[in-house]
Amino acid sequence: MADVPSLQPDDKNFHPGKEKPAYGIPNLQPDLSSRAPQTFYKWNVEGYPPESLPVIARSMPSHSLIVNVGLAIIVILTLLVMISNNYICGLSFFSFMSLVFVFPIALTYRTRAMQLKWFAWTVRHKDELCLDCGEPLHSLAEEGTCPKCTQPYSLESSRWGWRRWRSATNIPDQPPVRPGPLHQSKPRASILAGAPRAFRFIIIVEGLAALIGLLAYWSIARFFDMRGVSLLIMMAAILAIIWFLVDRPTRAAKKNAADVDHLLCPECTYRLDDREARGTCPECGFYYTFANCQWAWRHLRKDVNKPPTPPPRLIPGGRESQRAFPDG
Q: What is the reported pTM?
């Protein structure tokens, strides 16, 4: 009777749950050996070329403008309270309104929260993401050019960069060679800067809708001396006007963007689906990439299947980086 080969691993260092992939089949399980970043990693990039790390290691966008607008509205309401009552009531009102309306937004879009969203995004896509725009690359070749932001990539350097950002311990000390040259880019300062220009004010209003409605209610009741039914009719008329001027154009823009795979210019809504992945918009001169276009319109449509923060803008006419990376 022929010997039956043993199906047990002969590796003395074998540990359950850490089996080596057999027959050359890569392990498609995400790397969970790293921990969620405890601090903003941009303070710990010394000794590594910036291009070997994700762009969020150098700048993490947030929704600071919406928070600042919310605080400004609360200050206006607080002054009205102080004028009609006293300073104690005003300070109490300021504290309560900040806690209810502004702090939740600040906590949602603070650096730590955005880091955790990026952590989940990297694990979901097994670290095979573009280091510059965060778009998935696992269905592409081992090396090439990102079809969204047109930056050169290699899956090996992408995996190393994202795992290093996540403070993984089972990676080489030095980054692997990354293809080049790289196009110069500028990280976005805020999430709002990556949204379509014509709808940034609408995004602010959506984020602070309850607070703006309270300010409008207070202003009408105080300065127009309206009460009861007349006040409700006035508020209903204002909401109808806002819906007509804002909601209908927004719906049309979302539909137009979805029809062309979100490839509209973020500045002027010009169609770019028949053009190169990187170039200048013929209508407004905006230097775009498909990553900028698709992220902007997906953000307006509240699509969760996108990187948590906007990709950087490429610098038009900027010199390409020829910097080489050391071998890992």
A: 0.76
